[in-house]
Write a structure and sequence with these properties.
single chain
Length: about 90
């Protein structure tokens, strides 16, 4: 794994929307994964980690199967707040 890929991966977990902007500006990574700009645009607002995970799976494996499916499912759970303490924090504050 190259240094840039590792950096973008760490950035995606900390600040996924900023990572999407960087990936969109400096590469065609999202364009190769999605046929239209609608899904990355919606993903930017609603499920940014899932958007990046799906783009990674498609660009790396050309399909979402096996371990790539696991990564996308974990990304969905992170976006929904079920992983990372988001759900617990909202229950405590609630």
């Amino acid at each position: 794994m190259s240094g840039n890929t590792c950096f973008i991966g760490c950035l995606a977990l900390m600040m996924p929307r900023f990572a999407i902007i960087l990936v969109w500006l400096f590469s065609d990574y999202l364009g190769r994964a999605y046929e239209t700009l609608l899904w990355p645009f919606l993903g930017f607002f609603f499920m940014p980690v899932t958007t990046l995970a799906y783009a990674w799976a498609i660009n790396t494996n050309a399909t979402v199967a096996g371990i790539y499916l696991v990564v996308v499912v974990v990304a969905v759970l992170m976006d929904l707040g079920l992983i990372g303490g988001g759900a617990n924090k909202s229950r405590r504050d609630g």
